[in-house]
Amino acid sequence: MLTSHPAPPAMFQLQNFINGQFVPPVNGRYLDNVEPATGQVYSQIPDSDAADVAQAVAAAQAAFPAWRALSAEKRGRLLVRIAELIERDLERLAQAESQDNGKPVALARTVDIPRAASNFAFFGTGIGHFSSESHFQEGQSLNYTVRHPLGVVGCISPWNLPLYLFTWKIAPALAAGNCVVAKPSEITPATAYWLGELCQEAGLPAGVLNIVHGTGPGAGQAIVEHPAIKAISFTGGTKTGEHIARTAAPMFKKLSLELGGKNPNLIFADCDLAAAVSTSIQSSFANQGQICLCGSRIFIERPIYEQFKELFLARVAGLTVGDPQVETSRQGALVSEAHLNKVLSYIELARQEGGTLLTGGQRVQVPGRCAEGFFLQPTVFEGLAPDCRTNREEIFGPVVTLTPFDTEEEALSWANGTDYGLSATVWTTDLNRAHRVAHQLHAGVVWINTWLLRDLRTPFGGMKNSGVGREGGLEALRFFTEPRTSASSFSGPYLSLLALRQLPQKASETEPGG
Predict the structure, then answer these.
(1) Is the pLDDT higher at 286 or at 494?
(2) Residue 181: beta bridge partners?
(3) Which SUPFAM superfamilies match (predicted)?
(4) Residue numbers annotated as active site
(5) Residue 92 CB: number of other CB atoms within 10 A?
(6) Which of 86, 163, 175, 410 has the largest CB neighbor count within 10 A?
């Protein structure tokens, strides 16, 4: 549970990044920041509220005219410079991400931090190719559409991929010419703090990016409610997304909500079994299952069910749960004690619903410095009904279910049988089936014989309760801009010439006879 109190002198304090400077919270209050692997407080963050958000918005408003007026090329160069600094400091940021989130440092080093750099580089260069539109109406007018930045926008990111998803929102917003008030998760604030340092070094103008730490009800709600913030980009739980929509919609703010998932993994008998097993291990347990795209419901065609299960369980047994700072660890700690208890409650629910526990299901005691950490065995169940709560509700942890199916129609019905529609994976060597099934899945992203393959140019987002809107590529730049169409009619000499062209040229052309 988060507690708010003055920090002891020896405790490292993160600060808000407002108007280009690191500043303490207005109210002087701080939150404990716990290292998941040890269960111990190791730093403190501002417990910011509406007063801090007001300061950040004022700084952003003051910076907006000059930032908007800066050419796309110059804005892009600054973003590329930030990308270069992230790459330079990759190891420091990876260590910080691992300590703050509990994920293996190897994962942070190879996925999270490189992707954060790619986000800035992609949008820093991409803004130079973000073209306007024109429409020529023959003989009447020229219409052209220019997209303008919204002004001050709010970006609220989750704890599972802290810097990765933080930059995924901030980079396109800045590239498009907006100024940003951003809130990282209070559970994983460290790399967002260090990003402020890199922005200073890169020469990002003061007030263009403001980072306010704090809780959702404190800082997050103040961002959503502030009338000067024109758009909210949020990634997180569906219930929180519902609350944001209820608050922001009457204020006519633009909303991009990337929410939860309960993603199916469909494995047909004609698949490349070795590849399906290997990748399904990743899609089940990467980041301790704490990725909204993890495939937590694995449906296997009956002829290969037992073979897949045997190979899959053998691979699960090789997943080393341990100190995330140790290079050989493949499973780190869950992000918090509260989240660990939530996942354990779903394991108990699965038992109550009649599931057979095939492996895992227990908290792991890691010796040494991690004795009090929040570790959990990778867990696999079978024998659960496709429509039970375990198979419909988002667990967001290292828990998957195995279910055999007999027909393609059955697999599709079960795959689509939740309120979520974020992603899905299909394993088959039949090209016709691959595209046929992908077309019928209710998911914003479908992977065929792969997982987590992301081209940053493509739209990303979910259907149903998995969200509203799309991120990535031109979709992100469109979200953070407002189109304005200008039209000019043809007049003067051109219009007179047009009128002459419409006059009869010869009597014989308009009258019968000679």
Answers:
(1) 286
(2) 154, 210
(3) ALDH-like
(4) 258
(5) 12
(6) 163
